[in-house]
Automatic annotation (TrEMBL):
Family: Belongs to the 4-toluene sulfonate uptake permease (TSUP) (TC 2.A.102) family.
Organism of provenance: Candidatus Limadaptatus stercorigallinarum
Protein name: Probable membrane transporter protein
Alphabetized UniProt keyword annotations: Cell membrane, Membrane, Transmembrane, Transmembrane helix
GO cellular component, one term: plasma membrane
Keyword match Transferase: no
InterPro entries tied to this protein: TM_pro_TauE-like
Chain segments annotated as transmembrane: 41-60, 72-91, 103-123
Amino acid sequence: MQWLWFAAAGICGGVLAGMGMGGGTLTIPILVLLLSVDQLTAQFANLIAFLPTGAAALGVHLKNGLVERAPLPWVLLPALAATAATSFFAADSSEVLGKLYGGFLVLIALGGLIGGVAANFSARK
C-alpha cells in the first residue's frame, strides 16, 4: 500500500514539472518528511527522474532553434563548479545535504516573495 504514496509523490512532482516549476521542489520534501526516505536517496531519485525528461526537452528546444548557445559557457562553468563543490557535502551526510537543500528552498521562497512585492509596487505606479 505504501507504493501508492510514492506514486502520489511522483504524480505531484510531475504536475509541477509540467507547469514549469521544478518537480523536485515538492517531491523531495514529500519523500523525506512524509515517507521517511533519507535525503540523499530522495535527491538521487529526483535526479534520475529529471535526466531523461530534461534530455528530451533539450532535444525539442534544439530542434526548434530555441537554445542560445553564446551564454552556455557562462551557465555551464558555474554549474560544474557548484557540482564539484556540492559533491563534498554529499559525501558528508544526509543531514548536511538536507540543511543545504532547506536553505536553498528558503532562498527560492524569498526570491519569489521579493519579486512578487516588487511587481505589486511597480503595477501600482
